[in-house]
Write a structure and sequence with these properties.
By secondary structure, the chain is mainly β. Helices cover about 10% and strands about 55% of the residues. The protein has three helices and 19 strands. Strand 11 and strand 12 form a beta hairpin.
Length: about 325
Amino acid sequence: VMAASLLGPVRANLKLTANDIPLALRLAVGNFAGSKAFPVTAELQTLSQPAKLLFSGVSTGLSSGVRLDGTGSFEFGTTKTEDGQKPKAPLRIESGVTVGDDTATFRNLVVAMAGTTLKGNAQAQWRKRPSVDVSLDGEALTLDPLADRIGEFLSGSKVPFGSFATLPMPEGVDARANVKVGGLLIHDVLVRDASLSLALDDGTLSIERAAGDIGGGTQLELSGALTHGASGGRFYGKLKATSRNMGALASWLESMGEVPGAKEEQSVPPALAKEPNRTFSVSSKVQLTEDNLAFNGLAAAYALTPDAADISGDIAFNSREGRLVLRS
């Protein structure tokens, strides 16, 4: 720590550990004598992961009623290679920031990944119970950098997506997030009109609605809540899908596995080729724990709604049994 006087300017390079995470903090504060505003710059970086938080702005003072005004950014990932590991494309968040006694406003918020962006705003307050509200939208977003990290996290799952049930949730903060994207690209898979509404309330994460359209005019929709108890995390929800053109959907699914330059072959099943506009729908309750994934009350029909189901039953996978269980 270096200071020209007790009233600044002050510069500090610190190393600390928070929740077993090693951190490095660089801080620069201008002369704060009197009642005039002074510059503040802070950079917080994790030493175990390529993550960095930066703020640069002006403070109106050190007493109550002080206000910070400036710009902030957060970056996770790097294009550099270390120890033979593959580089991870960065996720970057930028915003204008205004912080008061018990509120913070994030204006002109930008989330950037792989050359695409979402824009919006966010607000936080800690007057009573801390809470955060975020709203983002954009025409297109490439989700590959985030999808790769999620894939790494889920790779150790005992059952498909089982690690999702182990996600720790903070209990002292409430939050809401609404995201809309015209075209969401995930490893060459395009989801149109994607929307996501999330809420965090006292340690419970609610997916109020996650929806989007994939190939063949097929809409997917998921809702539910992740809670934690003595037996661990558990997700309860509902999943439904509706296709207005099964032939187009079959072609779209087949195209995902095509090899560039390979000879094209008839991919649509003959039954669907004769009825290109055949509809299909399916709905089910979903239950997920670390070692169990179950689709209960599953109903499917060749119609826009599965009310008069052609197929009904349950599907479950339990890691302790190590096998898929079908009941119809």
